[in-house]
């Protein structure tokens, strides 16, 4: 996230919210005036009738109502008591009270999902447990003939929703997905009860998949809460110059690296001390025009986008100079502007480089004024006072890496370089089929030689400035890429495989996927036709097709998509690794900042683990999804960094309608959830830190996000209750980390 247009992205929890709030249903309405108790509207011969809501029960001990599915429903003899099907999902699934399969006892709940593109499941509504308490929900699940899209949000999972008066959307907690056919396995989900919640709902769901799923032995047990209060706070003299904790001794290499000590992962400072990142992302002061420049300045200009980017350049550079009081004529003399214009109009191959240089000069102008220098000095002191020890990308360090001499004296903090943004599929936007995500969120054509060329150009320039800088933590390889295809509408069947199939014949990525299929089917078009339901005479016929559809043999087609995803992930990470290590052998490769809520499958995680030093996730859940992260760790075996998380609040007065994350009521609640998030996160020995998004709130009219993500208002006034809690927690991160256990 950060400095880009975002929109709300639905996962299982989001789709459940729409169902339960009436967004896609005529059969259920949740009324805050009724203290969260829904009115069930069932259709009967064209007329609605009002039914009594499910009976509410307090969570007590380890039981939910009929969690073992042994009790029957008198009105529906073939269903277990206490559980209601999600509205409008019965058309996509059948619900059975199974007397032949059970994990314990004699019976279980069986869901037969016959459509992959819908959410199906059952729910139970409960009165909220006592606020502030923590619980763990466990459920046993068995699957058979389960088919999901590789890399997409699909499978069976448990969701817990809390509805709070005054908030439009509930807080949602979600377990990992079960994505393949398997025998009985236990799913666990930890959640904390919010203040003043009206209703709690437990949902056993299946999304983006088809097949059979059995549920049994659903239990909720109270656990000890995670807090920072009892952890030891460190003193300034306990830390080295990089913020590392002197009590933890690792190898001294002169640069940051990752090391496992007594079963816990640490980042190790250049002086050889353990380091847990407590970072802040997107520290900057700029107007809207400068923000738009920053949004596009790190995307290299390609021949197909020259005129579009030149037009943006001419629109922004003079007004930005005027805003900042910079000397526009000195920065861009008339002869320089004319030279760029002539190159663009003549189609000169030098035009892309000239435009990129102009954007870089504007960036230097934006951040080179006296006001900005004074702001940097004040901000560095504020960061230190609040207990942060790292400045992440999308900050003024963009200019350290690309425009200004690399120097730790600019901030005096370790920093992370911005990712290199490679244009999606490396071609003009107009040449891509409809449905391909935009340049920012799309996936690059890693089979195009230009992909390596762009990385070579960018990292050679970057490394010349920072490869010997001990304050540099490392490099991100990307941000929230579309590994699962269509990331904005996850219910739509559109995978990375489909994205490459949709490319025009001249694209290297299209040629690569056709070659992949030819090899996979040993050059036999008849075998391919049998699996995919096509009628090609030979594999070159695929070059003219833009879609293969779902295929005839669902299992075989799923395997093809899965294998291509693994091949593409291997190509992506291998090329990035080779290029970075060619120019910089010293610093960490920090992964790709996987999108919060986006599933990351084995096909991606296993090859990635061979080429990165740290795995990065953006995770905007109310609590860190350690269940999902631990599952991912088994596949990549690398330490993990949460590179974005944040909470918003209504009392900020901002719309809070764009971007990820949950909206709370007050700044005090933001502080409480910050403590819960960090305390639970650092309880995992696989986690080496986090970065909060972000420093200052967005302007209400911001064209990117309009949210209360900041530690300060748009006038740079700190939110006192939030900041007090952030300061307290940040000073205890090493105490929290040292108590982590495997």
Summarize the entry for a quick read.
This protein has 742 residues and is of the alpha/beta class.
Protein topology:
Layout: H1 12-21, E1 28-30, E2 38-44, E3 47-51, E4 84-85, E5 93-98, E6 108-113, E7 119-126, E8 134-148, E9 155-163, E10 171-174, E11 182-192, E12 199-207, E13 209-223, E14 245-249, E15 257-261, E16 264-268, E17 273-275, E18 277-281, H2 288-297, H3 306-324, H4 328-331, H5 334-346, H6 351-367, H7 370-385, E19 390-391, H8 397-402, E20 415-417, H9 449-466, E21 472-475, H10 496-501, H11 508-520, H12 525-532, H13 554-583, E22 588-589, H14 602-609, E23 615-618, H15 626-636, E24 640-644, E25 648-649, E26 663-664, H16 667-681, E27 687-693, H17 720-730, H18 733-738
Helix pairs in contact: 2-3, 2-6, 3-6, 9-13, 13-14, 14-15, 16-17
Explained architecture:
30% of the residues lie in helices and 21% in strands. α9 (449-466) packs parallel to α13 (554-583), α13 (554-583) packs parallel to α14 (602-609) and α14 (602-609) crosses α15. The chain has 742 residues and is of the alpha/beta class. The radius of gyration is 27 Å and the shape is globular. The strands form 7 sheets. It has a 5-stranded antiparallel β-sheet, covered by helices on one side. It has a 5-stranded antiparallel β-sheet with strand order 5-6-13-8-11. The protein has a 5-stranded parallel β-sheet with strand order 19-18-27-24-23. The model is unreliable at 2-10, 22-58 and 396-409 (pLDDT under 50). It has 18 helices and 27 strands. The longest helix has 30 residues, at 554-583.
């Amino acid at each position: 996230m950060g400095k880009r247009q975002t929109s709300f992205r639905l996962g299982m929890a989001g789709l459940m919210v729409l169902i339960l709030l009436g967004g896609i249903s005529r059969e259920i309405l949740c009324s805050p005036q009724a203290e969260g108790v829904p009115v069930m509207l069932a259709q009967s011969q064209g007329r609605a009738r009002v039914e009594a809501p499910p009976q509410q029960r307090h969570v007590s001990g380890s039981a939910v109502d009929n969690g073992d599915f042994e009790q029957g429903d008198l009105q529906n003899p073939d269903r277990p008591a206490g559980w209601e099907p999600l509205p409008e999902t019965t058309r996509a699934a059948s619900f059975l009270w199974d007397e032949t399969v059970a994990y314990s006892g004699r019976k279980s709940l069986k869901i037969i999902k016959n459509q992959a593109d819908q959410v199906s499941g059952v729910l139970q509504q409960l009165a909220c447990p006592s606020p502030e308490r923590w619980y763990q929900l466990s459920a046993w699940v068995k699957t058979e003939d389960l088919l999901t899209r590789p890399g997409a949000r699909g499978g069976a999972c448990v969701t817990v929703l809390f509805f709070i008066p005054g908030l439009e959307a509930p807080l949602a907690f979600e377990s990992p997905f079960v994505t393949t056919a398997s025998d009985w396995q236990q799913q666990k989900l930890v959640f904390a009860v919010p203040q003043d919640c009206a209703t709690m709902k437990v949902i056993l769901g299946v999304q983006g998949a088809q097949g059979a799923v059995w549920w049994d032995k659903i239990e909720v047990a109270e656990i000890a809460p995670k807090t920072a209060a009892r952890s030891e706070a460190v003193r300034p003299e306990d830390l080295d110059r990089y913020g590392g904790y002197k009590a933890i001794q690792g190898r001294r290499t002169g640069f940051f690296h990752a090391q496992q000590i007594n079963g816990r992962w640490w980042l190790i400072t250049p002086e050889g001390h353990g380091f847990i990142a407590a970072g802040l992302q997107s520290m900057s002061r700029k107007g809207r025009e400068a923000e738009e420049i920053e949004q596009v300045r790190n995307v290299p200009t390609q021949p197909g986008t020259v005129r579009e980017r030149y037009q943006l350049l001419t629109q922004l550079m003079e007004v930005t100079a005027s805003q900042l009081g910079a000397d526009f004529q000195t920065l861009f003399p008339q002869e320089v502007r004319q030279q760029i214009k002539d190159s663009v109009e003549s189609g000169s191959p030098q035009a892309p480089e000239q435009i990129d240089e102009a954007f870089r000069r504007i960036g230097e102008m934006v951040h080179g004024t006296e006001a900005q220098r004074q702001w940097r000095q004040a901000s560095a002191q504020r960061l230190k006072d609040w207990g942060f020890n790292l400045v992440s990308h999308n900050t003024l360090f963009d200019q350290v890496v690309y425009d200004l001499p690399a120097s730790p004296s600019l901030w005096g903090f370790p920093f992370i370089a911005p990712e290199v943004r490679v244009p999606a599929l490396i071609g003009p936007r107009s040449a891509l089929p409809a449905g391909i995500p935009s340049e920012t969120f799309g996936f690059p054509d890693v089979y195009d030689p230009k992909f390596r060329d762009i990385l070579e150009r960018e990292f050679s320039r970057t490394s010349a400035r920072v490869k010997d800088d001990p304050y540099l933590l490392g490099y991100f390889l990307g941000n929230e890429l579309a590994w699962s295809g269509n990331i904005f509408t996850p219910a739509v069947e559109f995978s990375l495989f489909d994205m490459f199939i949709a490319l025009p014949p001249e694209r290297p990525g299209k040629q690569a996927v056709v070659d992949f299929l030819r090899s996979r089917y040993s050059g036999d078009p008849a075998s391919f036709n049998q699996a995919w339901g096509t009628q090609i005479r030979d594999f070159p016929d695929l070059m003219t097709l833009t879609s293969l559809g779902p295929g005839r043999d669902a299992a075989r087609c799923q395997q093809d998509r899965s294998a291509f995803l693994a091949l593409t992930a291997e190509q992506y990470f291998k090329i990035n690794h080779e290029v970075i290590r060619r120019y910089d052998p010293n610093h960490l490769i920090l992964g790709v900042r996987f999108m919060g809520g986006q599933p990351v499958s084995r096909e991606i995680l296993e090859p990635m683990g061979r080429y990165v030093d740290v795995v990065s996730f953006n995770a905007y859940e109310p609590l860190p999804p350690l269940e999902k992260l631990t599952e991912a760790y088994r596949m990549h075996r690398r330490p993990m960094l949460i590179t974005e998380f944040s909470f918003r609040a209504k009392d900020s007065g901002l719309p809070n309608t764009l971007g990820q994350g949950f909206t709370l009521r007050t700044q005090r609640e933001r502080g409480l959830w910050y403590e819960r998030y960090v305390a639970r996160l650092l309880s995992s020995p696989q986690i080496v830190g986090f970065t909060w998004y972000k420093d200052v709130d967005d302007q209400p009219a911001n064209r990117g996000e309009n949210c209360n993500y900041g530690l300060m208002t748009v006038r740079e006034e700190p939110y006192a209750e939030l900041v007090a809690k952030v300061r307290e927690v940040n000073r205890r991160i090493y105490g929290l980390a040292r108590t982590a256990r495997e």
